[in-house]
Amino acid sequence: MPDLDTTTEVSDPYLDIQGKLETPFDINELEKDHVSQWLVRNDYEGESLRINYCGAKVISLKCLNGHQKLVRTTCHKEICPRCGKKGSLAHRKRHMRALDRLLWSPILGYVIFTLPRHVSDLLPDKKQLSDIEKKAIKVVQENFSSPGCMVRTHLMGEDSGHLHIHINVLFPITNTGGRGKVPKDVLSDVRQQWTQYINQKFNLKEKVMNIFYKFTTEEMQMRHRIRYVTRPVVTAKKFMTLPDSEKKWYLSLKGWHNTRWYGKLANCKYKEFLKEKGLDPTARLEEDIATARKCPVCRERYRFVESINVEEINDNQFIRLDNNIWVDFEIFAAMKAQPPPSGFQPLWVTKDD
Q1: Where in the chain is the domain with CATH 3.30.70?
Q2: pLDDT by residue (tens digit) across 151-187?
Q3: Which among 25, 74, 281, 303 could disulfide-bond with 271, CB atoms 3.0 to 4.6 Å apart, if both were Cys?
Q4: At the top level of CATH, which class does the domain 105-278 belong to?
Protein backbone atom coordinates (compact mmCIF):
# COMPACT_ATOMS: atom_id res chain seq x y z
CA MET A 1 0.00 0.00 0.00
CA PRO A 2 1.54 3.38 -0.97
CA ASP A 3 2.21 5.96 1.71
CA LEU A 4 -0.39 8.67 2.06
CA ASP A 5 0.73 12.24 1.52
CA THR A 6 -0.45 13.81 4.78
CA THR A 7 0.33 17.29 3.49
CA THR A 8 -2.36 17.09 0.82
CA GLU A 9 -5.67 18.70 1.69
CA VAL A 10 -8.38 16.03 1.87
CA SER A 11 -11.58 16.88 -0.01
CA ASP A 12 -15.10 16.07 1.09
CA PRO A 13 -15.44 12.25 0.78
CA TYR A 14 -18.79 12.50 -1.03
CA LEU A 15 -17.44 14.99 -3.58
CA ASP A 16 -14.31 12.89 -4.01
CA ILE A 17 -16.36 9.77 -4.74
CA GLN A 18 -18.67 11.68 -7.07
CA GLY A 19 -15.68 12.89 -9.07
CA LYS A 20 -14.50 9.33 -9.68
CA LEU A 21 -17.86 8.01 -10.82
CA GLU A 22 -18.74 7.87 -14.50
CA THR A 23 -22.28 8.94 -13.62
CA PRO A 24 -22.80 10.94 -10.39
CA PHE A 25 -25.57 9.46 -8.28
CA ASP A 26 -28.66 11.13 -6.87
CA ILE A 27 -29.11 10.51 -3.14
CA ASN A 28 -32.89 10.71 -3.55
CA GLU A 29 -32.77 7.94 -6.14
CA LEU A 30 -30.65 5.80 -3.85
CA GLU A 31 -33.11 6.28 -0.99
CA LYS A 32 -36.04 5.52 -3.28
CA ASP A 33 -34.40 2.34 -4.52
CA HIS A 34 -33.57 1.26 -0.99
CA VAL A 35 -37.11 1.79 0.29
CA SER A 36 -38.69 0.33 -2.84
CA GLN A 37 -36.60 -2.84 -2.71
CA TRP A 38 -37.48 -3.41 0.94
CA LEU A 39 -41.19 -2.92 0.17
CA VAL A 40 -41.09 -5.45 -2.67
CA ARG A 41 -39.19 -8.01 -0.58
CA ASN A 42 -41.83 -7.70 2.13
CA ASP A 43 -44.89 -7.94 -0.15
CA TYR A 44 -45.77 -4.23 -0.31
CA GLU A 45 -45.66 -4.02 -4.10
CA GLY A 46 -48.44 -1.42 -4.24
CA GLU A 47 -46.57 0.94 -1.92
CA SER A 48 -43.40 0.40 -3.94
CA LEU A 49 -45.16 1.32 -7.20
CA ARG A 50 -46.60 4.52 -5.70
CA ILE A 51 -43.16 5.67 -4.57
CA ASN A 52 -41.46 4.71 -7.85
CA TYR A 53 -43.98 6.59 -9.99
CA CYS A 54 -44.37 9.55 -7.64
CA GLY A 55 -43.93 12.79 -9.55
CA ALA A 56 -43.81 11.19 -12.99
CA LYS A 57 -46.89 13.13 -14.11
CA VAL A 58 -48.28 16.62 -13.78
CA ILE A 59 -51.83 17.87 -13.90
CA SER A 60 -52.58 20.80 -16.17
CA LEU A 61 -54.81 23.49 -14.64
CA LYS A 62 -56.21 26.42 -16.58
CA CYS A 63 -58.43 29.37 -15.67
CA LEU A 64 -61.24 30.72 -17.86
CA ASN A 65 -58.87 33.32 -19.33
CA GLY A 66 -56.36 30.70 -20.43
CA HIS A 67 -53.67 31.19 -17.78
CA GLN A 68 -52.13 27.82 -17.05
CA LYS A 69 -50.04 26.07 -14.43
CA LEU A 70 -48.75 22.50 -14.08
CA VAL A 71 -48.48 20.73 -10.73
CA ARG A 72 -46.78 17.39 -10.09
CA THR A 73 -48.96 14.56 -8.89
CA THR A 74 -47.27 13.02 -5.87
CA CYS A 75 -47.96 10.12 -3.52
CA HIS A 76 -47.88 12.26 -0.32
CA LYS A 77 -46.18 9.40 1.58
CA GLU A 78 -43.55 10.46 4.09
CA ILE A 79 -41.32 7.48 3.30
CA CYS A 80 -41.14 8.70 -0.31
CA PRO A 81 -37.89 10.68 -0.87
CA ARG A 82 -39.83 13.29 -2.86
CA CYS A 83 -42.80 13.73 -0.49
CA GLY A 84 -40.79 13.25 2.69
CA LYS A 85 -38.72 16.37 2.13
CA LYS A 86 -39.26 19.59 4.03
CA GLY A 87 -41.03 21.95 1.65
CA SER A 88 -42.52 19.11 -0.42
CA LEU A 89 -46.01 19.57 -1.85
CA ALA A 90 -47.47 17.53 1.01
CA HIS A 91 -45.65 19.65 3.58
CA ARG A 92 -46.63 22.89 1.86
CA LYS A 93 -50.32 21.97 1.94
CA ARG A 94 -50.25 21.06 5.65
CA HIS A 95 -48.23 24.16 6.45
CA MET A 96 -50.44 26.62 4.55
CA ARG A 97 -53.66 25.15 5.97
CA ALA A 98 -52.21 25.50 9.46
CA LEU A 99 -51.12 29.08 8.86
CA ASP A 100 -54.64 30.01 7.76
CA ARG A 101 -56.24 28.45 10.83
CA LEU A 102 -53.70 29.46 13.48
CA LEU A 103 -51.72 32.56 12.53
CA TRP A 104 -54.53 35.01 13.31
CA SER A 105 -54.27 34.32 17.03
CA PRO A 106 -52.65 36.87 19.35
CA ILE A 107 -51.06 33.93 21.20
CA LEU A 108 -50.15 30.51 19.84
CA GLY A 109 -49.96 27.73 22.40
CA TYR A 110 -47.97 24.54 21.91
CA VAL A 111 -48.08 21.43 24.07
CA ILE A 112 -46.00 18.29 23.53
CA PHE A 113 -47.43 15.21 25.23
CA THR A 114 -44.65 12.64 25.60
CA LEU A 115 -45.02 8.89 25.99
CA PRO A 116 -42.65 6.46 27.70
CA ARG A 117 -40.49 4.36 25.39
CA HIS A 118 -42.48 1.30 26.44
CA VAL A 119 -45.60 2.59 24.67
CA SER A 120 -43.69 2.98 21.41
CA ASP A 121 -42.30 -0.53 21.87
CA LEU A 122 -45.87 -1.87 22.23
CA LEU A 123 -46.64 -0.62 18.68
CA PRO A 124 -50.08 0.85 19.42
CA ASP A 125 -52.69 0.30 16.72
CA LYS A 126 -54.69 2.97 14.90
CA LYS A 127 -57.50 3.00 17.48
CA GLN A 128 -55.08 3.37 20.38
CA LEU A 129 -53.30 6.23 18.64
CA SER A 130 -56.62 7.96 17.98
CA ASP A 131 -57.65 7.48 21.61
CA ILE A 132 -54.37 9.03 22.77
CA GLU A 133 -54.89 12.01 20.47
CA LYS A 134 -58.45 12.53 21.74
CA LYS A 135 -57.23 12.51 25.34
CA ALA A 136 -54.58 15.12 24.51
CA ILE A 137 -57.32 17.27 22.97
CA LYS A 138 -59.54 16.89 26.00
CA VAL A 139 -56.72 17.90 28.33
CA VAL A 140 -56.01 21.02 26.26
CA GLN A 141 -59.69 21.97 26.08
CA GLU A 142 -60.11 21.64 29.84
CA ASN A 143 -56.99 23.58 30.81
CA PHE A 144 -56.35 26.22 28.14
CA SER A 145 -58.51 28.98 26.73
CA SER A 146 -58.79 27.92 23.10
CA PRO A 147 -61.62 27.58 20.54
CA GLY A 148 -59.92 24.68 18.74
CA CYS A 149 -56.62 23.09 17.86
CA MET A 150 -54.46 21.08 15.50
CA VAL A 151 -53.07 17.73 16.63
CA ARG A 152 -50.16 16.13 14.84
CA THR A 153 -48.60 12.92 16.08
CA HIS A 154 -44.89 12.49 15.46
CA LEU A 155 -43.96 8.82 15.39
CA MET A 156 -40.21 9.46 15.56
CA GLY A 157 -38.00 12.09 17.13
CA GLU A 158 -34.80 13.66 15.87
CA ASP A 159 -32.88 10.41 16.39
CA SER A 160 -33.10 7.53 13.93
CA GLY A 161 -33.29 3.81 14.59
CA HIS A 162 -36.36 3.64 16.82
CA LEU A 163 -39.87 4.96 17.32
CA HIS A 164 -40.51 7.87 19.65
CA ILE A 165 -44.24 8.62 19.63
CA HIS A 166 -45.29 12.03 20.95
CA ILE A 167 -48.35 14.21 20.44
CA ASN A 168 -48.05 17.84 19.31
CA VAL A 169 -50.96 20.19 19.89
CA LEU A 170 -51.01 23.73 18.45
CA PHE A 171 -53.85 26.04 19.45
CA PRO A 172 -54.83 29.71 19.48
CA ILE A 173 -55.15 31.19 22.98
CA THR A 174 -57.92 33.72 23.46
CA ASN A 175 -59.61 35.57 26.32
CA THR A 176 -56.47 35.76 28.43
CA GLY A 177 -55.76 39.48 28.12
CA GLY A 178 -52.75 38.91 25.90
CA ARG A 179 -51.10 36.53 28.37
CA GLY A 180 -49.99 33.04 27.36
CA LYS A 181 -48.27 32.04 30.58
CA VAL A 182 -50.01 29.26 32.48
CA PRO A 183 -49.79 28.87 36.28
CA LYS A 184 -47.57 26.04 37.53
CA ASP A 185 -50.47 24.33 39.26
CA VAL A 186 -52.35 24.11 35.94
CA LEU A 187 -49.34 22.53 34.23
CA SER A 188 -48.99 20.16 37.17
CA ASP A 189 -52.64 19.13 36.76
CA VAL A 190 -52.14 18.61 33.02
CA ARG A 191 -49.13 16.41 33.67
CA GLN A 192 -51.05 14.42 36.28
CA GLN A 193 -54.08 13.91 34.00
CA TRP A 194 -51.86 12.73 31.17
CA THR A 195 -49.82 10.37 33.35
CA GLN A 196 -52.91 8.85 34.91
CA TYR A 197 -54.54 8.24 31.52
CA ILE A 198 -51.50 6.64 29.87
CA ASN A 199 -50.79 4.46 32.93
CA GLN A 200 -54.36 3.22 32.93
CA LYS A 201 -54.56 2.66 29.18
CA PHE A 202 -51.31 0.73 28.89
CA ASN A 203 -51.20 -0.80 32.38
CA LEU A 204 -48.08 1.13 33.40
CA LYS A 205 -46.83 2.53 36.70
CA GLU A 206 -44.97 5.63 35.57
CA LYS A 207 -44.61 8.28 38.28
CA VAL A 208 -44.77 11.18 35.88
CA MET A 209 -44.83 11.75 32.13
CA ASN A 210 -43.40 14.93 30.78
CA ILE A 211 -45.45 17.48 28.98
CA PHE A 212 -43.85 20.58 27.51
CA TYR A 213 -45.79 23.81 27.17
CA LYS A 214 -44.65 26.80 25.16
CA PHE A 215 -46.37 29.87 23.79
CA THR A 216 -45.44 32.74 21.52
CA THR A 217 -46.88 36.10 20.53
CA GLU A 218 -44.34 36.72 17.72
CA GLU A 219 -45.51 35.96 14.19
CA MET A 220 -42.14 34.68 12.95
CA GLN A 221 -41.93 32.27 15.87
CA MET A 222 -45.49 31.13 15.18
CA ARG A 223 -44.61 30.47 11.54
CA HIS A 224 -41.50 28.54 12.52
CA ARG A 225 -43.36 26.42 15.06
CA ILE A 226 -46.18 25.61 12.65
CA ARG A 227 -43.77 24.62 9.93
CA TYR A 228 -41.77 22.49 12.36
CA VAL A 229 -44.80 20.59 13.64
CA THR A 230 -46.20 20.00 10.12
CA ARG A 231 -42.87 18.77 8.70
CA PRO A 232 -42.42 15.18 7.44
CA VAL A 233 -41.13 12.92 10.22
CA VAL A 234 -40.84 9.27 9.12
CA THR A 235 -38.73 10.07 6.06
CA ALA A 236 -37.21 7.48 3.72
CA LYS A 237 -33.87 7.73 5.47
CA LYS A 238 -35.36 7.33 8.95
CA PHE A 239 -37.76 4.59 7.83
CA MET A 240 -34.86 2.42 6.67
CA THR A 241 -33.17 2.69 10.09
CA LEU A 242 -36.15 1.07 11.83
CA PRO A 243 -36.26 -2.66 12.56
CA ASP A 244 -38.52 -4.61 10.20
CA SER A 245 -41.23 -5.05 12.85
CA GLU A 246 -41.53 -1.27 13.24
CA LYS A 247 -41.46 -0.70 9.48
CA LYS A 248 -44.38 -3.11 9.08
CA TRP A 249 -46.21 -1.47 11.98
CA TYR A 250 -45.81 1.94 10.34
CA LEU A 251 -47.24 0.61 7.07
CA SER A 252 -50.15 -0.94 8.98
CA LEU A 253 -51.30 2.59 9.90
CA LYS A 254 -52.60 3.17 6.37
CA GLY A 255 -55.80 5.21 6.58
CA TRP A 256 -54.90 6.74 9.95
CA HIS A 257 -54.42 10.52 9.79
CA ASN A 258 -51.67 11.89 11.98
CA THR A 259 -52.86 15.47 11.47
CA ARG A 260 -56.32 16.35 12.76
CA TRP A 261 -58.28 19.50 13.54
CA TYR A 262 -60.73 19.89 16.41
CA GLY A 263 -63.23 22.34 17.86
CA LYS A 264 -64.08 25.43 15.85
CA LEU A 265 -60.98 24.79 13.71
CA ALA A 266 -62.32 21.42 12.52
CA ASN A 267 -62.62 20.95 8.77
CA CYS A 268 -66.39 21.42 8.82
CA LYS A 269 -66.32 24.55 10.99
CA TYR A 270 -63.17 26.61 10.47
CA LYS A 271 -64.30 28.60 7.41
CA GLU A 272 -67.41 29.94 9.11
CA PHE A 273 -65.46 30.58 12.32
CA LEU A 274 -62.73 32.59 10.58
CA LYS A 275 -65.17 34.50 8.38
CA GLU A 276 -67.04 35.64 11.50
CA LYS A 277 -63.72 37.16 12.62
CA GLY A 278 -63.37 38.96 9.28
CA LEU A 279 -60.58 36.64 8.13
CA ASP A 280 -60.04 34.91 4.80
CA PRO A 281 -59.93 31.16 5.64
CA THR A 282 -57.79 30.33 2.60
CA ALA A 283 -55.54 33.40 2.34
CA ARG A 284 -52.24 31.51 2.70
CA LEU A 285 -53.36 28.62 0.53
CA GLU A 286 -54.02 31.14 -2.23
CA GLU A 287 -50.71 32.86 -1.51
CA ASP A 288 -48.72 29.79 -2.57
CA ILE A 289 -48.89 29.00 -6.29
CA ALA A 290 -48.63 25.28 -5.46
CA THR A 291 -51.84 25.23 -3.44
CA ALA A 292 -53.71 28.20 -4.98
CA ARG A 293 -57.06 27.39 -6.55
CA LYS A 294 -57.29 30.79 -8.25
CA CYS A 295 -55.15 32.34 -10.95
CA PRO A 296 -52.86 35.13 -9.62
CA VAL A 297 -53.39 37.14 -12.81
CA CYS A 298 -57.19 37.34 -13.06
CA ARG A 299 -58.36 35.57 -9.85
CA GLU A 300 -60.46 33.12 -11.86
CA ARG A 301 -60.67 29.59 -10.51
CA TYR A 302 -58.42 26.94 -12.08
CA ARG A 303 -60.03 23.99 -13.81
CA PHE A 304 -58.49 20.60 -14.58
CA VAL A 305 -57.45 20.14 -18.22
CA GLU A 306 -55.40 16.93 -18.46
CA SER A 307 -52.65 14.83 -16.95
CA ILE A 308 -49.36 14.52 -18.83
CA ASN A 309 -45.89 13.06 -18.31
CA VAL A 310 -43.24 15.45 -17.02
CA GLU A 311 -41.17 14.76 -20.16
CA GLU A 312 -43.99 16.18 -22.28
CA ILE A 313 -43.82 19.66 -20.73
CA ASN A 314 -43.08 22.30 -23.37
CA ASP A 315 -40.16 24.41 -22.13
CA ASN A 316 -41.09 27.12 -24.62
CA GLN A 317 -44.51 27.49 -23.03
CA PHE A 318 -43.82 27.09 -19.30
CA ILE A 319 -41.31 28.28 -16.72
CA ARG A 320 -40.33 25.92 -13.92
CA LEU A 321 -40.66 27.62 -10.54
CA ASP A 322 -39.33 24.68 -8.54
CA ASN A 323 -39.30 20.89 -8.76
CA ASN A 324 -43.09 20.67 -8.61
CA ILE A 325 -44.61 23.72 -10.32
CA TRP A 326 -44.55 25.13 -13.87
CA VAL A 327 -46.45 28.26 -14.95
CA ASP A 328 -47.01 30.14 -18.19
CA PHE A 329 -45.28 33.47 -18.84
CA GLU A 330 -48.19 35.67 -17.77
CA ILE A 331 -48.49 33.96 -14.40
CA PHE A 332 -44.72 34.14 -13.99
CA ALA A 333 -44.75 37.90 -14.61
CA ALA A 334 -47.55 38.36 -12.06
CA MET A 335 -45.64 36.35 -9.47
CA LYS A 336 -42.41 38.27 -10.02
CA ALA A 337 -44.32 41.43 -9.22
CA GLN A 338 -45.28 40.20 -5.74
CA PRO A 339 -43.36 38.64 -2.82
CA PRO A 340 -42.91 34.85 -2.65
CA PRO A 341 -45.16 32.81 -0.33
CA SER A 342 -44.26 32.88 3.34
CA GLY A 343 -41.70 30.29 4.32
CA PHE A 344 -41.03 28.91 0.83
CA GLN A 345 -38.52 30.33 -1.63
CA PRO A 346 -38.93 29.09 -5.21
CA LEU A 347 -35.87 28.47 -7.36
CA TRP A 348 -36.42 31.61 -9.45
CA VAL A 349 -36.15 33.93 -6.43
CA THR A 350 -32.53 35.06 -6.16
CA LYS A 351 -30.69 37.19 -3.63
CA ASP A 352 -30.75 40.04 -6.13
CA ASP A 353 -34.57 40.05 -6.39
Answers
A1: 105-278
A2: 999 999 988 999 999 999 999 998 776 678 888 999 9
A3: 281
A4: alpha beta
